[in-house]
Design a protein that fits this description.
There is one protein chain. This protein has 110 residues and is an alpha+beta fold. The protein has one domain (3-109): predicted glycosyltransferase like domains (Thrombin, subunit H, Beta Barrel). Helix content is 19%, strand content 47%. It has one helix at residues 89-109; strands at 11-12, 16-21, 24-34, 37-41, 51-57, 63-74, 78-86. It has a 6-stranded antiparallel β-barrel with strand order 2-3-4-7-6-5.
Length: 110
């Protein structure tokens, strides 16, 4: 998916992910993230359009539960997912905080 189709900019962030799809349960990490989706670095197999349940680990060791749909795949590299549902309003706010913190961290490195 090209950047021109995204509504928000992504920021590089390596966040632990536990995801489950038709191929089973997998441990992985994000390569980048924004409030509308993320790229998951994994060799686990998915299909475009597949609905996934997954969790993102916050620096506080808490987890945000998310449901998403696979937008595109790069076999043996990972896939992009668009968030469909975040488990609670509190988790949505914590995700927004996480994206802002990672954006700030990335800008400090420049």
């Amino acid at each position: 998916m090209g950047d021109e189709r995204r509504r928000e900019g992504r920021v590089q962030a390596f966040i632990e992910v536990l995801w489950e799809g038709t191929s089973g349960k997998h441990d992985a990490r994000t390569g980048d993230i924004h409030t509308g989706g993320c790229f998951i670095d994994t060799i686990g197999e998915v299909a475009v359009g597949e609905i996934l349940d997954f969790k993102l680990r916050l620096p506080s060791e808490d987890w945000i539960e998310v449901k998403g749909v696979v937008a595109y795949t790069y076999p043996n590299v990972g896939f992009g997912v668009r968030f469909l549902n975040i488990s609670s309003e509190a988790d949505r706010k914590r995700l927004e905080w996480l994206v802002k913190a990672e954006t700030y961290r990335a800008q400090k490195k420049e």
